[in-house]
Amino acid sequence: MTATLDTGITKDQRGRVARELSKVLADSFAVYQKTHGYHWNVRGPEFFSYHKLLEQQYREIWEALDDLAERIRALGEFAPQGASTFANLTSIKDGDPEKDAQEMLKELMRDHETVIATARAAVEIGEAADDGASVDLLNARLAAHEQHAWMLRSSLSSK
Ligand SMILES: [Fe+2]
């Protein structure tokens, strides 16, 4: 037996918001994986500060993955699962351990901008559905990714 769900948001709208949240989740998961990989593989005279910065960022993003997935479940939809499902939901590519440190940071900064654009589009859909809880979560993710992007941008040499 399936219990019905009545939270004042139509099934259609819940589905629409959940699809947007799934895209934000997939982008976030991709940037999480790349950040963790670059935490391992970054090299150079600034190694330790980059290694620590990336650790701080991947830990923050890791926590958020769960919040996003559980919000999708609260809307009555399944959270995406599996590598190929995630790959189909994001345009963010895998990292390349051969890159030098500055290239890694720049690539991550651009990836955060991708997450930000996806989250901003999701906010619009959430607002149209009057889904304040999803909008609150998405706005918090916007602030976090803008902060991550700022720290990466400020670590780039300005040549
Ligand atoms: Fe580590």
Automatic annotation (TrEMBL):
<feature type="domain" description="Ferritin/DPS">
    <location>
        <begin position="20"/>
        <end position="156"/>
    </location>
</feature>
<dbReference type="InterPro" id="IPR012347">
    <property type="entry name" value="Ferritin-like"/>
</dbReference>
<comment type="similarity">
    <text>Belongs to the Dps family.</text>
</comment>
<dbReference type="InterPro" id="IPR009078">
    <property type="entry name" value="Ferritin-like_SF"/>
</dbReference>
<dbReference type="InterPro" id="IPR023188">
    <property type="entry name" value="DPS_DNA-bd_CS"/>
</dbReference>
<dbReference type="InterPro" id="IPR008331">
    <property type="entry name" value="Ferritin_DPS_dom"/>
</dbReference>
<dbReference type="InterPro" id="IPR002177">
    <property type="entry name" value="DPS_DNA-bd"/>
</dbReference>
<protein>
    <submittedName>
        <fullName>Dps family protein</fullName>
    </submittedName>
</protein>
<dbReference type="Pfam" id="PF00210">
    <property type="entry name" value="Ferritin"/>
</dbReference>
